[in-house]
Design brief:
The protein has 115 residues and is of the alpha+beta class. 40% of the residues lie in helices and 15% in strands. It has a three-stranded antiparallel beta sheet.
């Protein structure tokens, strides 16, 4: 049984709240194939970003081993020349309590790849 919906003061009925569902990838290679182009596109913008900002914006799946695979992805992108470190920021991830995280910025090579 679902709870009744309380109409707003103007009489309109609000749309139901969507809960955020996080997908878990089956294996590393499948996950990497899905997230790689998203991060390449983010690098091509040239703006500074955190890993979580891109993952959250695009609703990317969680890797099989989140503690290792997110960092490995960023290391691969850096080694391939798509991103460089830009500094540090407080994390937007709700579970980190604003701890420090690395920020990234796309390289000139990443912007040329997108063109």
């Amino acid at each position: 049984m679902t709870a009744p919906v309380q109409p707003a003061l103007d009489g309109s009925v609000p749309s139901p709240r969507q809960t955020k569902v996080q997908r878990q990838a089956e294996d590393y290679e499948t996950w990497l194939a899905e997230v790689w182009p998203i991060f390449i596109a983010a690098a091509a913008t040239g703006r500074t970003f955190t890993t979580y900002q891109i993952a959250d914006t695009h609703r990317l799946p969680t890797p099989p081993n989140p503690q290792a695979h997110w960092g490995r992805l960023m290391t691969l992108l850096k080694d391939e020349g798509y991103i460089r470190t830009a500094g540090w920021a407080c994390s937007d991830r709700p579970t980190t309590h604003h701890s420090g995280v690395r920020t990234w910025r796309g390289t000139t090579a990443a912007r040329r790849t997108a063109a």
